[in-house]
């Protein structure tokens, strides 16, 4: 029930105009007090509440009608955020993920405060997970992590396969594929997409000045503890895989499985925990490690085409040691610098012999003998010896 208390603000006029007793002026302020309760937002049709207030006095009765309009309800949208996760079963800690091995459990979280509509209960949302190569899709129901968190989490198993069997509780993935999570906020039908999870990614060897993939680089992974080529396993986690491979080439593990690398690509599937180092023997015309800065490399147009929109440049990209721990695979991109441009300059006289006063015609030629790197703008200066002058 709405209770209205009446207060008079200022003095009510007491004189009357003529014999008719008409009230000349009066000032009345109504203060409306509403009971306080827990607010729940809802969309309702506009309403007009009409209340009648009666003021008793020795003057003619004043009837005041007040139209009360409800304030508009403003709903502020909370944009949804999708995050791929790894789960450490020892520490019970979730950490953000951008790469997985086939066979790992894929964990996904949606943070969307809009869907925390009841702070006293644990709620759910739905997302779709898709692999871009197999085309397999799984619809996941994510459960709120607490009764009032607005964060929803769930998981699905993965398997190495190119066969799509939608909604069978297992997502089919393959090498160097991309997982995409799609979520639509029921409140406003805005779709949020996360596509940052790679499965068994390849590294890439590329030209630091152009971004062009470089095939033919010899890559050996060394076990730092022994100083010898490391033990590497194939995708089955058992069969021995070569510790030396060629970028853009092929490799075969002990089971006979063949691994084909796209131009510039390379990959070492599984390795034991330890400290390792990449030894790179670049093809002719290139040098390693690269002297180019990360900033200049990431500014290349080709960087935007890489997974995550950038090259994966880390200390091992230039020969530093790195640690492999239990968990997701590691991606290391390797830039190579084209060697300094080799220019060959030759001056040739077209006249075999000349006497004083004779005109001697000659030509100067320049050749870039580097088959890889292009020459930038080059200026040739030719200085004549004493006793000679140019003649046009």
Describe the structure in your own words.
The protein is mainly beta and 392 residues long. The protein is 1% helix and 40% strand. The protein contains 1 helix and 32 strands. It has one helix at residues 294-298; strands spanning 4-7, 16-17, 22-23, 29-32, 49-55, 62-68, 81-88, 93-96, 99-100, 105-111, 124-131, 137-144, 151-160, 170-173, 177-184, 191-199, 203-207, 218-223, 228-229, 232-233, 240-241, 244-246, 250-252, 258-260, 265-266, 270-271, 274-281, 286-287, 322-324, 334-338, 343-349, 362-368. A hairpin with a 6-residue loop joins strand 5 (49-55) and strand 6 (62-68). The longest helix has 5 residues, at 294-298. Residues 1-55 have low confidence and may be disordered.
Keywords:
single chain, 392 residues, mainly beta, five-stranded antiparallel beta sheet, 32 strands, 40% strand, elongated
Secondary-structure map with pairings?
Blueprint: E1 4-7, E2 16-17, E3 22-23, E4 29-32, E5 49-55, E6 62-68, E7 81-88, E8 93-96, E9 99-100, E10 105-111, E11 124-131, E12 137-144, E13 151-160, E14 170-173, E15 177-184, E16 191-199, E17 203-207, E18 218-223, E19 228-229, E20 232-233, E21 240-241, E22 244-246, E23 250-252, E24 258-260, E25 265-266, E26 270-271, E27 274-281, E28 286-287, H1 294-298, E29 322-324, E30 334-338, E31 343-349, E32 362-368
Parallel strand pairs: 9-16, 13-14, 17-30
Antiparallel strand pairs: 1-4, 2-3, 5-6, 7-8, 7-10, 10-13, 11-12, 11-15, 12-13, 15-16, 17-25, 18-19, 18-22, 18-27, 20-21, 20-26, 23-24, 27-29, 28-30, 31-32
């Amino acid at each position: 029930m709405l209770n209205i208390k009446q207060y008079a603000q200022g003095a009510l006029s007491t004189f009357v105009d003529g014999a008719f007793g008409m009230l000349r002026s009066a000032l009345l302020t109504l203060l409306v007090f509403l009971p306080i309760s827990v607010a729940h937002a809802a969309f309702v049709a506009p309403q007009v509440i009409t209340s009648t207030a009666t003021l008793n006095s020795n003057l003619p009765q004043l009837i005041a009608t007040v139209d009360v309009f409800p304030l508009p309800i403003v709903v502020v949208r909370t944009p949804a955020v999708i995050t791929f996760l790894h789960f450490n079963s020892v520490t019970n800690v979730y950490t953000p993920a951008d790469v997985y091995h086939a066979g790992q459990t894929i964990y996904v979280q949606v943070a969307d405060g809009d869907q925390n509509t009841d702070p006293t209960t644990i709620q759910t949302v739905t997302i779709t997970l898709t692999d871009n190569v197999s085309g397999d899709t799984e619809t996941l129901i994510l459960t709120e992590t607490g009764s009032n968190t607005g964060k929803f989490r769930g998981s699905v198993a993965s398997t190495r396969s190119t066969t799509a069997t939608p909604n069978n509780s297992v997502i089919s993935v393959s090498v160097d594929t991309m997982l995409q999570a799609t979520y639509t906020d029921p409140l406003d039908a805005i779709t949020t997409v996360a596509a940052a999870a790679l499965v068994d990614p390849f590294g890439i060897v590329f030209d630091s000045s152009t971004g062009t993939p470089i095939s033919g680089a010899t890559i050996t992974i060394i076990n730092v503890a022994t100083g010898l080529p490391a033990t590497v396993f194939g995708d089955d986690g058992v069969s021995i895989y070569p510790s030396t491979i060629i970028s853009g080439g092929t490799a075969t593990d002990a089971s006979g499985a063949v691994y084909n690398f796209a131009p510039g690509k390379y990959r070492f599937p599984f390795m034991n925990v330890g400290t390792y180092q990449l030894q790179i023997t670049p093809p002719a015309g290139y040098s390693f490690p690269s002297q180019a800065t990360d900033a200049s490399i990431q500014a290349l147009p080709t960087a935007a085409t890489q997974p995550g929109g950038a090259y994966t440049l880390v200390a091992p990209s230039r020969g530093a040691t790195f640690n492999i721990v239990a968990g997701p695979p590691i991606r290391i991109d390797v830039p190579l610098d084209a060697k300094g441009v080799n220019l060959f300059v030759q001056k040739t006289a077209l006249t075999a012999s000349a006497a004083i006063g004779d005109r001697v015609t000659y030509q100067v030629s320049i050749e870039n003998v580097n088959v890889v790197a292009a020459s930038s703008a080059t200026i040739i200066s030719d200085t004549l010896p004493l006793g000679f002058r140019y003649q046009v």
